[in-house]
Design a protein that fits this description.
The chain is of the alpha+beta class. The chain contains 11 helices and 12 strands. It folds into 2 domains: 103 residues, Beta-Lactamase (2-Layer Sandwich); 163 residues, Histidine kinase-like ATPase, C-terminal domain (Heat Shock Protein 90, 2-Layer Sandwich). The two termini are 62 Å apart.
Amino acid sequence: MFSAGIEAWQRLGPMFDGAFEGMILCEGDRILAANTRALEMLGYADEAALIIDAPTLFERIDLRAERNFEWNVNARSKILRSRSCVGDPGDVWMLYIQDRSDIEAVAWQVRKQEEQFFNQSRLAQMGEMISMIAHQWRQPLCAVASAAIALQTKARLGRFDMHSDKGRDETLEYLINQTRMIAEYVDTMTLTIEDFRSFYKKDREKELVSVRTLIGRTLGIFNASLKQQGIELCVQGSDETPVEVFPNEIVQVLLNIIQNSFDQFVERKLPRARIDLRWGVRETMMCIEIGDNAGGIPEQLMGKIFQPYFSTKVERNGTGLGLYMSKTIIQEHHGGLLEAQNQEGGVTFRIGLPLIIKERNHDRT
């Protein structure tokens, strides 16, 4: 066994020496060999010194257990992880060593990369949002302009009868109605701005909200664009069970998915375009389904749609981050599930958000 372990180490030595983590080859309670990284991390000048000091190392850990151990070396915390072969105590096994600071640095890099993806996705959505604002404001702006032109025209043509009581009453009523209509449309535009401002405000903590509220906020942003393109929207759901979420992040996910359907309808110029939005409780999850009849996703691409920077919208400057960030938000930020499946002439995205089981059980008692 001893010679077999050494032979394997010598054959794979160059690969071991290039490893990021420390690696120590052991047999029972003896050290057979160690890579350069392990010697550096544990503070040994050479392999011979480590072999001599093996009892000091092994008395700190359970040699046969496959779990992690903490060991402070030169004021820096190391994580020791043993992995044994199945067999008798004399079998060859490997001890892996990682520097906690290295692990934290990698984790920090992963978090920074995720934050970068998230910011890029939000910036990409900003352009789409500006387009949506234009759609949202077009009709109320036209109505305000029409009311203002009507007032100016009547005034210039002397159509306001200010010489009789009846004429003055009619003029006053007309002015009140026109200004009320202008005020209502201004309120509509103000509400639109508030919806968008709220969307871009970063959630500081999770909130208990109903899916109906989240969908309402989403459609408050997107509904005008759907109507302008003649896309039918069917919303089905009555369950008011709250979910604990970062509301703006869930709205972002819903917008991403609806935007994908919207883009497919516009690109393919499909008649009778329709988006179905359903929600309800299934066991321990609140499930939201967004389906369309836009033709679906080619099966050879289905496995790639959640990858970063993968996009089928090259000609329309797709970033390839929308669905990737949506999956990250649902699975990592909320502990839920996000999947897609072709069906009924289109694609259906399913979102699963975990319910607060303890609180629900408590309410029933």
